[in-house]
Design brief:
Layout lengths: L2 H4 L4 H16 L1 E3 H8 L3 H13 L3 E4 L2 E4 L13 H6 L2 H13 L8 E4 L3 H10 L6 E5 L2 H8 L4 E5 L4 E2 L4 E2 L1 H8 L4 E6 L3 E3 L3 E4 L8 H9 L1 E7 L11 E4 L6 E5 L4 H9 L4 E4 L6
Parallel strand pairs: 4-5, 4-9, 5-6, 9-12, 12-14, 14-15
Antiparallel strand pairs: 1-3, 2-3, 7-8, 10-11, 11-13
């Protein structure tokens, strides 16, 4: 890299200084939000974040970046539920808003909501329903949202709680859910592709797959809630094939190529409008 490119007064240097200031003010931001703030392409942001990460000035995350927490940052701190909620927040908000406004959820239904940030955003809308609804979850944060609404009959799996993923252990979850049946299972994931199906990471302290697969088999329909950045991403742990999904709800901020990849999966896809697109 040339001296000009390194200069803090170059266009790139000024933009990277802005990135550092934004991360200082917000702790963590997604690529999407950085693009929106700085009015530049995602490729430009990725290159800047890669450079800043190499220089030890930030901590890169999946789909964004976070400021360093002191001199010895713990990367796991950046994967808290709150960080995941803030990452691609506008996209997740669109997915969640579409789910509740689409009319899918009707009075007296039984639904189960998966752990994860997009599902949490959806749960915020569900928690404001003014009609009778039965909701099950193994997420403590989602349960807390539901607990204040007298219209909602809540089922929460117990057992050992893992705050880093906001979930209870699989044994207790299986014990509860094995005798329950649902109209919808709203599922989260880390990646989806036509070839690999729906996948997630192996960084969690518990094996979530038995619970997810049980809930799919006990639900009349499984709907994947994911922002568009999950398309064509594959992680180590397989959840299910795309044929096991009844519907995918994502956001409409995707590129033409990403939209075509969603449609090529062969499952019904709803593209939720994102407010304040750049």
């Amino acid at each position: 890299m040339s001296a000009r490119e390194h200069s803090i007064y170059s266009k790139r240097g000024l933009r990277q200084n802005q990135i550092l200031q934004l991360l200082e003010n917000n702790s963590a931001m997604s690529n999407y939000d950085l693009c929106n703030e700085l009015s530049c392409s995602e490729a430009t942001i990725r290159n800047d974040l890669r450079d800043l990460d190499k220089r030890g000035l930030i901590f890169r995350t999946r789909g964004g970046a976070a400021k360093l927490a002191g001199t010895n940052p713990n990367p796991l701190d950046n994967f808290s539920i709150q960080f995941r909620i803030n990452s691609n927040a506008a996209l997740k908000e669109a997915v969640a808003g579409y789910l509740f406004s689409s009319g899918l959820i009707q009075p007296n239904q039984s639904i189960v909501i998966d752990m994860g940030s997009t599902c949490y955003m959806a749960a915020k809308y569900v928690s404001e329903c003014d009609f009778p609804l039965s909701v099950a979850t193994n997420s403590l944060n989602i349960a807390n949202l539901m607990a204040g609404n007298h219209n909602i009959s809540l089922a929460l799996s117990g057992g050992i709680y893992y705050p880093e993923i906001d979930a209870f252990d699989t044994t207790s979850s299986l014990n509860l859910f094995s005798n329950m049946f649902f109209d919808y299972y709203f599922m989260g994931a880390n990646g989806i592709s036509k070839s690999s199906g729906v996948t997630c990471t192996l960084q969690d302290p518990i094996d979530r797959m038995p619970v997810k697969r049980l809930l799919m088999s006990h639900s009349q329909a499984t709907i994947l809630l994911c922002d568009h950045t999950k398309i064509n991403k594959t992680y180590m742990q397989g959840i299910c094939s795309v044929n096991d999904l009844n519907m995918i709800i994502t956001d409409d901020a995707c590129s033409l190529e990403e939209r075509e990849a969603f449609l090529d999966i062969g499952t019904k896809v709803a593209f939720a409008p994102v407010k304040n697109q750049f």
